[in-house]
Design brief:
14 strands; globular; binds 3-methyl-2-ureido-butyric acid; Nitrilase/N-carbamoyl-D-aminoacid amidohydrolase; 318 residues; 26% strand; alpha/beta; six-stranded mixed β-sheet; 23% helix; 9 helices
Amino acid sequence: MSRTIVVGAAQLGPIGRHEPRAAVVERMLALLREASSRGCELVVFPELALTTFFPRWYFMEQAEIDVFFEREMPGPDTQALFDEARALRIGFHLGYAELTQDAAGQRRRFNTAIMVDASGRLVGKYRKVHLPGHREPQPAFPFQHLEKRYFEVGDLGLPTFDAFGGRVGMCICNDRRWPETFRVMGLQGVELVALGYNTPVHYPPAPELDRLQDFHNHLSMQAGAYQNGTWVVGVAKAGCEEGCDLIGGSCIIAPSGEIIARCATLGDELISAECDLDRCQALQATLFNFALHREPQHYGLIVERKGVGPRLESGDPA
Ligand code: CDV
C-alpha cells in the first residue's frame, strides 16, 4: 500500500499588530482551499500563525501580552479553520500562543503547535522547547525577542505521533537549529517533521550573520532531514511585519536532504509535494540505521552537560 501523502506548506505573509484573528483565519482558509484543489492531505502553517510575532515588543502589562494568546483551541475565531479542514478532509499543523489555566487559577503560557488529522481529530500537541532571545528588554536592539520572558519551556518533550499513515513529529522555529531536536524524534523513527518559524533577517546580537539567515535556515532543516532520514516541512511567516523583515524560504525537504519544493515570495503562498514516507527507509535502514551504527556510550556529554565545560581526558592511544 502506498504511503505517499501530498503535503502543503502554507507560508503566511506579514500579520499586522492589530489585524483581527478572523482576518488571518480567512487568509488561512484561502490557502487551505488551494491546498484542497491540489489534493493535499496535510497542510503546515507557521509558528504563532494567528497573530503578529509579538515577542518583538516589550509589554509591561500582562494583559497586553495575553491578547495574543489562545485560551481554547479551537476557539471562536479558529473554529472556521477546523470546520473547513474537516469538510475538505485535510489535516493541518498550526502554531499558536497557548494560555492554560488550572483548577487553582494558575496560568501558564507556551509557544505551541498542534497536528489535526483529516477527520478533525487532534493527533498531537507540542510545546516549544528551545526558546531563543532574552528575558530582559534590550534597549540597544532595534526590536526585542522576548520569548524567554513570555513563554515557559515546553513540558511535553519531543514526542512523535502515528498519523497520516506514518510517524510524524513537530518542532518550532529555533528548535530546528538544534540537532538534538531531530535526533530525539529520529530515535522514534519519525518520517515527517512539521515546523513553523518566524525568523528576522536581522539578528541584533551578531549582525554579521544577517546575510546568512536563509542559508542557516535551510542548512539546519536539510541536515535534520538527511541525518535522520525524514521528510521536513518548514513554513515561514515572512515579509516585512511591523517594520521587521522576516525571512521566507518555506520548503519541503526529502529524507535525502534535498529541497523539492520552495516558496518564491515573502507573502501568502502555498507549495506542495508528494511525500513518499517509504523513502525514509533508504537512509533509516542503511547509512543511518541507528541500531547498527550509533555508539551512544560515547555521547554521554550530550545529556550530562548543558554548556561547554572542560575537555575530556582521553586514554593514551600509544
Ligand atoms: N522564532 C524564533 O525562534 N526565531 C529564532 C530567531 C530569533 C533566531 C530562530 O531561530 O529563527
